[in-house]
Amino acid sequence: MSTVVLFEHPLNEKMRTWLRVEFLLNQLHETVPVSGSVSALAVFRIMGDLLDIFERGDMRTELLKELERQQQKLRAWLDVPGVDEQTIVSLRDRLKRQSTELMAAPRMGQQLREDRLIALVRQRLSIPGGCCSFDLPSLHIWLHQEQSLRDIQVNGWLESLMPLRNSLTLILDLIRQSGAFRHQTSLNGFYQDNAEGSDLLRLQLTLEDALYPQVSGHKSRYAIRFLPLDSERGEVPARLNFELACC
User: Fold this and answer.
1) Residue 3 DSSP code
2) What is the DSSP letter of 107?
3) Alpha carbon of residue 243 to chain centroid
4) φ, ψ of residue 202 in degrees (nearest 5)
5) CA–CA dist 35, 90 (Å, integer)
6) Which pLDDT tens digit goes with each residue over 128-144?
7) Residue in 167, 150, 165, 204 with CA at minimum distance from that of residue 39
């Protein structure tokens, strides 16, 4: 049975930021519990990356706008004959609850920003080997605490990000489900089409193809060039079948 590989490409800056934050949050949850210096530095590095993103723009406002936009779309669906009203109303209520949770939450990343240990480690991450024991004795002693004490502190950091994660997960799920995969064919490794105001491209290839897509585009038009994983000996077929969804 073929292994299917899913590629996603954002078509605007908002989606680009959301996918990066989703990627970091997933990494963060995969890295805990913090059991040593390797997992600790991975957690601190991810949280530093998240804070860098939060400081570049008002992500909460963008998420609240999108939650409202999705509610408006669902209200329009209620006028469609034969639609499952119970499902639509239930989903709309979830969006409302998530908006309330996100609005009530403190400033995004505030707890992480005010934590002294995170601030100390974050300052040293750009220095090669800058987090060793003589540079950061506070981190060294923290890593020697009981695992249960570290878990409580780390779980508190993760909990402060839950309003963001819940909102982002719901929004991205709805966006991804808005586009169905369709069979497409590229000629000599190239494919282009109109994006029709979409936010996200989702593309499926089989692992056996040994190819990856290089996408360029924006909200009105996009182009995909397929390249071989083995740049020296790999080949791109004249006609390549793949699955594509515009969301």
Assistant:
1) P
2) S
3) 21
4) -125, 125
5) 40
6) 999 999 999 999 999 99
7) 150
